[in-house]
Amino acid sequence: MSDNTSAFFGRRALLATLTEHKDAVAASGRGRLLGLRGRRQVGKSTVVERFVELSDTPYVFVTGLYNATTRQQLDQATRALVESQNLLPDAEVMAQTPATSWRDWLGRLALTARSGPVVAVLDEFPWLVRADPSLEGELQAQWDRTLEKLPVLLILIGSDMAMMDRLVQADRALFGRVRHLAVPALDPSEVAQALPDRDPVAAFDAYLVTGGYPRLVADLAASGRPVEDHVLANLADPYGPLVATARLSLAAEFPDPGAAYNVLAAIGASDTARPGFNDVLSAIADPAERTRAQAALVRSLKTLTEAKGLIELEQPAWAPPTSKLRRHRITDPYLRFWFRYVERHVEHISRGRADLAQAFFGRDWPVWRGHVMEPVVRQALTRLAADDPALAGVETVQPWWTRDGRTEVDLVASTPDRSAVVGAIKWGPSGRVSDRDMDQLRRQRELVPRAATARLAAVSPTGAAPAGADLAYGAADLLAAWG
Asked: What pTM does this model have?
């Protein structure tokens, strides 16, 4: 494979993994079935397209059509046989007549593989199954009977996270056959690679706004503008990527917006950035309907956390899993940004009053970025603990707060038996942890469980160490966690 992958920031590892699978198929002469899952717009199809185009292996790339009939899907799959840059053996003959069924199409694929290794991609596999629910079973039968015994690398791509996860469950036809690969959005270090002229603080700002979605990162890089200026300009364009990408993705997740979408919007728009159960309940229900709304909220949160993976639960350090002390946060940084600054202003933007959205962003962003940076900091420190002697033995980094919410510590880095580090994160307008902040943290340490000997840490964009800090981390230190 050529090394022409520089445009795919953060995708070298995935390209290498796909190449390893392809080489294993070629060496063994036996098939492999991969399932690639990831949210819309994270670049699943793009990276697989690049993989097959750079490979010297014949391939076919089939793209499922939304709401198409089985006949339309099969016609599309037949045409795809002669549309690749490196055609399958006898592809023209195989495409002379449309496949009459998926058994017919998979049989043609098997014939081409008798001449040597081939790669077949079924993109938007959930849409293909939705058109013909028998496809999953038919694929299982053809795989067991023929394809697994041939040098075929078959890649199934899906944005329906729940459906792709269900592929490996014991009651499904493909159980035990699919090897899963997750395609995440770009991480902060990969965003920084795409913006080589920006400093680490700006790279994190870009990550908070784009969520690492490749298209949004590329658009920001092409603009050449500072992040805040880029946002202000894009809020004026209802069809621009920053405004439209989340809307398109959510339309696919929630074709009929209902209670779950309303809960997601309430969490995303919350002034706390991580509301508790009662905060969300107050946002979606009138006081007179709170009792009835509670059950609906519980169901919606279950859907958003377990089925869709759009919400993360946050508990204080050392709280048991059954504790009701929990807060809710949108998992995806871009969706957090979008619900805070775009969703509530969509109507304003669409009717030419983007100035209202821009004014709100200008007032709110300096403080809000401090809130939404906190989970990113904790994630970075968790990763740094693998190599940083100052964090030796640390397995989790969580916030901590009292039941009444009056006392809160931004981070508690814990080993299995003690709180090793407690810290303050200041990513707001001041950009630093003050001596006064450290004095307060020292007093709060006395309340944190198992923290009697915990060291004090200060985290800020500059990494400056105030008086009394045992450890200090800045933006460059945190960015290295993904390096």
From this structure: 0.87
